[in-house]
Design brief:
Layout: H1 3-16, E1 46-56, E2 61-71, E3 75-82, E4 85-93, E5 96-101, E6 106-111, H2 112-119, H3 125-133, E7 145-148, E8 153-159, E9 162-168, E10 175-182, E11 187-199, E12 202-216, E13 219-235, E14 250-251
Parallel strand pairs: 6-14
Antiparallel strand pairs: 1-2, 1-13, 2-3, 3-4, 4-5, 5-6, 7-8, 8-9, 9-10, 10-11, 11-12, 12-13
Protein backbone atom coordinates (compact mmCIF):
# COMPACT_ATOMS: atom_id res chain seq x y z
CA UNK A 1 0.00 0.00 0.00
CA UNK A 2 1.42 3.43 -0.92
CA UNK A 3 2.31 5.96 1.75
CA UNK A 4 -0.22 8.38 0.26
CA UNK A 5 -3.02 5.87 0.59
CA UNK A 6 -1.98 4.95 4.13
CA UNK A 7 -2.08 8.64 5.03
CA UNK A 8 -5.51 9.11 3.46
CA UNK A 9 -6.95 6.19 5.40
CA UNK A 10 -5.31 7.47 8.55
CA UNK A 11 -6.93 10.87 8.15
CA UNK A 12 -10.24 9.17 7.42
CA UNK A 13 -9.94 7.22 10.64
CA UNK A 14 -8.91 10.21 12.72
CA UNK A 15 -11.52 12.53 11.33
CA UNK A 16 -14.22 10.39 12.66
CA UNK A 17 -12.49 10.38 15.99
CA UNK A 18 -14.14 11.76 17.68
CA UNK A 19 -26.41 11.47 19.88
CA UNK A 20 -30.33 11.14 23.22
CA UNK A 21 -30.08 9.87 26.72
CA UNK A 22 -31.11 13.19 28.24
CA UNK A 23 -33.43 15.98 27.06
CA UNK A 24 -31.91 19.29 26.03
CA UNK A 25 -33.53 22.67 26.41
CA UNK A 26 -34.10 24.78 23.31
CA UNK A 27 -32.17 27.95 22.57
CA UNK A 28 -33.85 31.25 21.88
CA UNK A 29 -31.81 33.03 19.23
CA UNK A 30 -32.56 36.05 17.11
CA UNK A 31 -31.67 34.91 13.60
CA UNK A 32 -31.12 38.49 12.50
CA UNK A 33 -28.01 38.66 14.69
CA UNK A 34 -25.74 36.08 13.07
CA UNK A 35 -22.86 36.66 15.49
CA UNK A 36 -24.93 35.20 18.33
CA UNK A 37 -25.01 31.68 16.92
CA UNK A 38 -23.11 29.85 19.66
CA UNK A 39 -22.39 26.18 19.07
CA UNK A 40 -22.18 24.21 22.31
CA UNK A 41 -18.80 22.49 22.49
CA UNK A 42 -17.41 19.69 24.64
CA UNK A 43 -14.84 20.96 27.14
CA UNK A 44 -12.67 19.12 29.70
CA UNK A 45 -9.05 18.49 30.70
CA UNK A 46 -8.92 14.68 30.51
CA UNK A 47 -11.24 12.29 28.65
CA UNK A 48 -11.28 8.50 28.25
CA UNK A 49 -13.55 6.13 26.36
CA UNK A 50 -14.03 2.69 24.83
CA UNK A 51 -15.50 2.29 21.37
CA UNK A 52 -16.25 -0.09 18.53
CA UNK A 53 -15.05 0.84 15.05
CA UNK A 54 -16.08 -0.51 11.66
CA UNK A 55 -13.82 0.54 8.78
CA UNK A 56 -14.77 -0.27 5.18
CA UNK A 57 -13.26 0.68 1.84
CA UNK A 58 -12.76 -0.90 -1.58
CA UNK A 59 -10.37 -3.51 -0.15
CA UNK A 60 -11.04 -3.88 3.55
CA UNK A 61 -13.88 -4.45 6.00
CA UNK A 62 -12.34 -4.28 9.47
CA UNK A 63 -13.95 -4.30 12.89
CA UNK A 64 -11.91 -3.31 15.92
CA UNK A 65 -12.14 -2.05 19.47
CA UNK A 66 -10.43 1.14 20.58
CA UNK A 67 -9.38 2.65 23.88
CA UNK A 68 -9.19 6.43 23.62
CA UNK A 69 -7.54 8.93 25.95
CA UNK A 70 -7.35 12.68 25.43
CA UNK A 71 -5.65 15.51 27.24
CA UNK A 72 -7.36 18.54 25.77
CA UNK A 73 -5.20 20.75 23.57
CA UNK A 74 -2.23 18.42 24.10
CA UNK A 75 -2.45 14.76 23.05
CA UNK A 76 -4.79 12.05 21.75
CA UNK A 77 -3.83 8.41 22.43
CA UNK A 78 -5.60 5.45 20.81
CA UNK A 79 -5.00 1.72 21.26
CA UNK A 80 -6.63 -0.60 18.70
CA UNK A 81 -7.35 -4.30 19.18
CA UNK A 82 -9.17 -7.08 17.32
CA UNK A 83 -10.30 -10.39 18.87
CA UNK A 84 -8.57 -9.41 22.09
CA UNK A 85 -5.17 -8.86 20.43
CA UNK A 86 -3.66 -5.38 20.49
CA UNK A 87 -2.79 -4.52 16.90
CA UNK A 88 -1.87 -0.84 16.76
CA UNK A 89 -1.26 2.23 18.83
CA UNK A 90 -1.57 5.85 17.72
CA UNK A 91 -0.26 9.06 19.27
CA UNK A 92 -1.47 12.43 17.98
CA UNK A 93 0.18 15.52 19.41
CA UNK A 94 0.84 19.12 18.39
CA UNK A 95 3.72 18.18 16.09
CA UNK A 96 2.78 14.95 14.31
CA UNK A 97 0.83 11.70 14.10
CA UNK A 98 2.68 8.47 14.90
CA UNK A 99 1.26 4.98 14.39
CA UNK A 100 2.80 1.75 15.68
CA UNK A 101 1.87 -1.49 13.92
CA UNK A 102 2.49 -3.97 16.75
CA UNK A 103 1.89 -6.98 14.53
CA UNK A 104 4.31 -6.11 11.71
CA UNK A 105 6.72 -4.28 14.04
CA UNK A 106 6.80 -1.10 11.99
CA UNK A 107 5.72 2.52 12.43
CA UNK A 108 4.62 5.60 10.48
CA UNK A 109 5.19 9.29 11.26
CA UNK A 110 3.13 12.00 9.53
CA UNK A 111 3.71 15.73 9.93
CA UNK A 112 0.87 18.18 9.49
CA UNK A 113 2.49 20.38 6.82
CA UNK A 114 2.89 17.51 4.35
CA UNK A 115 -0.60 16.18 5.06
CA UNK A 116 -2.13 19.64 4.61
CA UNK A 117 -0.45 20.06 1.22
CA UNK A 118 -1.44 16.57 0.13
CA UNK A 119 -5.14 17.02 0.89
CA UNK A 120 -5.49 20.79 0.27
CA UNK A 121 -6.90 21.24 3.77
CA UNK A 122 -5.40 22.65 6.94
CA UNK A 123 -4.81 19.49 8.98
CA UNK A 124 -3.57 20.08 12.51
CA UNK A 125 -4.04 18.81 16.03
CA UNK A 126 -6.80 21.29 16.79
CA UNK A 127 -8.89 20.15 13.79
CA UNK A 128 -8.50 16.45 14.64
CA UNK A 129 -9.42 17.09 18.28
CA UNK A 130 -12.48 19.11 17.29
CA UNK A 131 -13.82 16.34 15.06
CA UNK A 132 -13.22 13.73 17.75
CA UNK A 133 -15.34 15.75 20.20
CA UNK A 134 -18.08 16.96 17.85
CA UNK A 135 -16.81 20.54 18.03
CA UNK A 136 -16.30 23.10 15.26
CA UNK A 137 -13.34 22.18 13.03
CA UNK A 138 -12.72 25.87 12.34
CA UNK A 139 -13.35 28.66 14.81
CA UNK A 140 -16.14 31.08 13.96
CA UNK A 141 -15.15 34.41 12.44
CA UNK A 142 -16.93 37.41 10.93
CA UNK A 143 -16.62 36.03 7.38
CA UNK A 144 -18.80 33.00 8.18
CA UNK A 145 -22.34 32.82 6.83
CA UNK A 146 -25.39 31.51 8.69
CA UNK A 147 -28.56 30.20 7.12
CA UNK A 148 -31.63 28.58 8.63
CA UNK A 149 -33.65 25.78 7.08
CA UNK A 150 -36.52 23.72 8.50
CA UNK A 151 -34.28 21.54 10.65
CA UNK A 152 -30.92 23.25 11.23
CA UNK A 153 -28.88 26.38 11.50
CA UNK A 154 -26.23 26.02 8.79
CA UNK A 155 -22.90 27.64 9.60
CA UNK A 156 -20.91 28.04 6.35
CA UNK A 157 -17.15 28.44 6.58
CA UNK A 158 -14.06 28.25 4.38
CA UNK A 159 -10.58 26.94 5.12
CA UNK A 160 -8.40 27.76 2.15
CA UNK A 161 -10.11 26.20 -0.85
CA UNK A 162 -12.28 23.88 1.25
CA UNK A 163 -15.88 24.73 2.11
CA UNK A 164 -17.23 23.55 5.46
CA UNK A 165 -20.95 23.41 6.24
CA UNK A 166 -21.89 22.76 9.87
CA UNK A 167 -25.48 21.68 10.53
CA UNK A 168 -26.41 22.74 14.07
CA UNK A 169 -29.53 21.54 15.89
CA UNK A 170 -31.68 24.50 17.07
CA UNK A 171 -32.78 22.42 20.09
CA UNK A 172 -29.37 21.43 21.41
CA UNK A 173 -26.98 23.82 19.59
CA UNK A 174 -24.76 20.78 18.92
CA UNK A 175 -23.37 19.83 15.52
CA UNK A 176 -25.23 16.92 13.91
CA UNK A 177 -23.56 16.93 10.49
CA UNK A 178 -20.48 18.40 8.81
CA UNK A 179 -19.97 18.51 5.03
CA UNK A 180 -16.59 19.36 3.51
CA UNK A 181 -15.81 19.85 -0.18
CA UNK A 182 -12.53 20.53 -2.02
CA UNK A 183 -13.85 21.82 -5.39
CA UNK A 184 -10.74 21.24 -7.54
CA UNK A 185 -10.49 17.52 -6.76
CA UNK A 186 -14.18 17.05 -5.85
CA UNK A 187 -13.00 15.19 -2.74
CA UNK A 188 -15.69 15.26 -0.05
CA UNK A 189 -16.09 14.25 3.57
CA UNK A 190 -19.37 13.98 5.46
CA UNK A 191 -19.45 13.46 9.23
CA UNK A 192 -22.69 12.59 11.00
CA UNK A 193 -22.99 12.63 14.78
CA UNK A 194 -25.67 10.64 16.62
CA UNK A 195 -26.80 9.59 20.08
CA UNK A 196 -25.78 12.62 22.10
CA UNK A 197 -25.64 11.74 25.79
CA UNK A 198 -24.56 13.63 28.87
CA UNK A 199 -21.07 12.89 30.16
CA UNK A 200 -21.26 14.69 33.47
CA UNK A 201 -22.43 18.15 32.31
CA UNK A 202 -21.18 17.80 28.73
CA UNK A 203 -23.24 16.63 25.73
CA UNK A 204 -21.10 14.12 23.82
CA UNK A 205 -21.83 12.20 20.57
CA UNK A 206 -21.63 8.47 21.31
CA UNK A 207 -21.91 7.52 17.62
CA UNK A 208 -20.53 8.90 14.37
CA UNK A 209 -20.38 7.89 10.71
CA UNK A 210 -17.82 9.30 8.30
CA UNK A 211 -18.10 8.96 4.53
CA UNK A 212 -15.15 9.93 2.35
CA UNK A 213 -15.19 10.17 -1.45
CA UNK A 214 -11.77 10.83 -2.95
CA UNK A 215 -9.87 10.41 -6.19
CA UNK A 216 -7.11 7.83 -6.55
CA UNK A 217 -5.35 6.03 -9.40
CA UNK A 218 -8.14 3.44 -9.40
CA UNK A 219 -10.81 6.14 -9.72
CA UNK A 220 -13.14 7.65 -7.15
CA UNK A 221 -13.07 5.62 -3.93
CA UNK A 222 -15.36 5.56 -0.93
CA UNK A 223 -14.31 4.96 2.66
CA UNK A 224 -16.88 4.60 5.43
CA UNK A 225 -16.09 4.53 9.14
CA UNK A 226 -18.64 3.84 11.85
CA UNK A 227 -17.75 4.68 15.42
CA UNK A 228 -19.75 3.85 18.54
CA UNK A 229 -18.75 4.49 22.14
CA UNK A 230 -19.93 2.11 24.83
CA UNK A 231 -18.14 4.08 27.53
CA UNK A 232 -17.16 7.74 27.76
CA UNK A 233 -16.13 9.75 30.79
CA UNK A 234 -14.50 12.99 31.82
CA UNK A 235 -11.64 12.16 34.16
CA UNK A 236 -10.87 14.06 37.33
CA UNK A 237 -7.36 12.60 37.60
CA UNK A 238 -4.40 12.89 35.28
CA UNK A 239 -4.20 10.16 32.62
CA UNK A 240 -1.10 8.43 31.28
CA UNK A 241 -0.31 8.07 27.56
CA UNK A 242 2.19 5.18 27.25
CA UNK A 243 3.93 5.33 23.89
CA UNK A 244 7.44 4.37 22.80
CA UNK A 245 8.96 3.04 19.58
CA UNK A 246 11.11 -0.08 20.02
CA UNK A 247 14.51 0.13 18.32
CA UNK A 248 13.82 -2.96 16.19
CA UNK A 249 10.71 -1.38 14.61
CA UNK A 250 11.16 -0.25 11.00
CA UNK A 251 9.95 3.19 9.91
CA UNK A 252 7.76 3.13 6.81
Amino acid sequence: MSRTRVALRLIALLIMLSSCGQKFSGISWNFLDRNKLEVRETNFEYFSGKAKINYKDDEHDVKAKANVRIRKDSVIWISFSAIGIQGARCLIDKDSITILNLVKKEYYVFNYDSLSKRFNFDINFEAIQAVALGNLIKEKDRNDEVEKNEDFYVLKQRSGNVSIHNFVSPKTMKIERVEMLEPDSKNTAVIRYYDYQMVEDQAFPYSAIISLFYKANAGTLNTVIEFEYNKAQIESKELKFPFSIPKKYERK
